[in-house]
Sequence to fold (382 residues):
Amino acid sequence: MRQTSSCSSSNTETLPPSHLTPLPQMRVLHPVSWVSVSVCWLVSSLCFLRVRSDETRDSLNSSALDFDSFRKLFQRQSDVTSEEFNRRQVFFQEATKRHAYLNSFSTAPQSAQYGINQFSDLSPKEFRDLYLRASADRAPHFSGRKTEGLPAKLDWRDKAAVAPVQNQQACGSCWAFSVVGAMQSAHAIEGSQLEQLSVQQVLDCSFKDEGCNGGSPVRALNWLKQSRVKLVPQSEYPYKAKTGICHFFPQSHDGVAVKNFTAHDFGGQEEAMKGQLLQHGPLAAVVDAVSWQDYQGGIIQHHCSSQWSNHAVLVVGYDTTGDIPYWIVQNSWGPTWGKEGYVYIKIGDNVCGMIFASFHSPLISALTLVHDCCRTHCPLRD
Fold:
């Protein structure tokens, strides 16, 4: 059994968690349901606090960027005479300069916008060390057929196949959220009632990963396949934002399991990825999310930077009807980060590197990996 661990920093103020909006408690209808899953790697930021309202946040960004207002809004508690206060104020001031720089590239309509959020008093290094904890594994290049006649727009939320945005809080558990998100969507698409499955169960029990210290959706899927573990509802095994001791359930207990999956690299094949999304449902994904520390909305077209995948998310749709086609990506940083918990990524340039995985049928799951990152402008490259 793995000992309890957590992802923290002695130099960073504690970030109070957001309140999650749970789904109604529902039961799995069969002792075990087999699902297939898709995983995708994308770049994103972590959101751990609830802003009181969008109006308050907008007001803060349009004001004189006062650090005291920021501290009140995000409930920062450090003494104003402390060294910690001074450090946070410096990071906050540096963030406002960074926002202006990033926004200077966002001149076209629908471009991404960057500004003050709950991460604005963290240094970029602190943000990476605390919240970007996912890793990607290599996979064979996708060699399947492209799907013909793709719709111009697809959003699995419209089909009641995507659970509400959750908040992983100060725990590097995005890898578990992405896998579980894909599983519960696939289960719903098969005809079962949409149900929030236990992320904490994966966090505690996937011995191939490191709990809050990070993990890989591929390793988690391998563990689920090999162990035949059935995920129980979140209501039975609630999320705690820290790694705990694995709680085992008898084989007779109801749950949802993964029987098999395959992994594929979709580099340069975003049309094929759209086909996978259409055929198999939401895709678990790992991304380079360094620049998402400051993201507030709009379509990300630039600013991928580190060239390594570090955060896991769930791709739930795409939209090619406008001037800039984009992926619709659910994050696990709460509904107040980005656009109600979502981020939009430009389709067509492998922006920031994407890795996808999907459930193909009740018996097969597939993982898609895209490693090409930042072929467009990269002003934040390390």
